[in-house]
Amino acid sequence: MPLPPCSTRGDSEAVEDYVRAIFRTARGPRQVASTTEVADFLGVTPASVSNMFKKLARRQLVLYLPYRGVSLTAEGERLALRVTRRHRLLETFLVEALGMSPERVHAEADRLEHHISAELEGLIAARLGQPSLEPHGDPIPGPDLKRRAASGGVRA
C-alpha cells in the first residue's frame, strides 16, 4: 500500500524538529506545548522558540498564543507524525538490522530522519515487518499517520 502524500518536501530540518518537539511535549486536553518545554527539549533558547512559533503559525502548522504556547494544526500534526514515524523506524532499523545499541540510535535517527524518501521509509517498514514499537518502547505511527497508543517509552 503506498504511503499517503505528505507536504514535507521543502520543509527545513528545523521546522521538522520543532513540530516533532511540539508533538512530544504537548500536554493537556488541548495538546499545548509551552515555549520553555520546547526550548528544553531542543536545547535552544526560549527566544529562538518564540521566533520559530511565529514562523510555524504563519505556515499554519501551529496555533500560537503568546505566553500560552502552541498546539499543532491538523497539517502540523501530520508533519510531526511523518517525522516521528521516520525517526522511530530508523531507530528500529539501526538496532535490528545493523546491531547498533539502543543508546546510540537516537542521535543517528535525528540526523537521518530528514533525508529518507517515502519509498525508503516503506521499504524499511516492510523489512522490519511493520513494527508498532521502536527500541525504547514508544509507538511508531502507522503508515496512515495515525497515532498509536503509548506504551510508556520516553524517547522522541
Low-confidence stretches: 1-10, 152-156
Net shape = elongated
CATH fold group of one domain: Arc Repressor Mutant, subunit A
**Second-tier CATH architecture of one domain:** Orthogonal Bundle
Helix content: 40-55%
The helix/strand order is HHHEEHHH
CATH homolog superfamily of one domain = Winged helix-like DNA-binding domain superfamily/Winged helix DNA-binding domain
Beta-strand residue percentage: 5-15%
Chain-averaged pLDDT = 88
SS-based class: mainly alpha
Oligomeric status:
single chain
Q: What is the number of beta strands?
A: 2
The side-by-side strand order for the widest beta sheet comes to 1-2
- What top-tier CATH class of one domain fits best? Mainly Alpha
End-to-end Cα distance, whole Å, is 26 Å
Overview of the structural elements:
The structure is a single chain. By secondary structure, the protein is mostly helical. Among the domains are: 13-72, Arc Repressor Mutant, subunit A (Orthogonal Bundle), CATH 1.10.10; 86-127, Diphtheria Toxin Repressor, domain 2 (Orthogonal Bundle), CATH 1.10.60.10. Helix content is 50%, strand content 5%. It has six helices and two strands. It has helices at residues 13-25, 35-42, 46-58, 74-96, 102-112, 118-127, and strands spanning 62-65, 69-72. Strands 1-2 form a two-stranded antiparallel sheet. Helix 1 packs across helix 4.
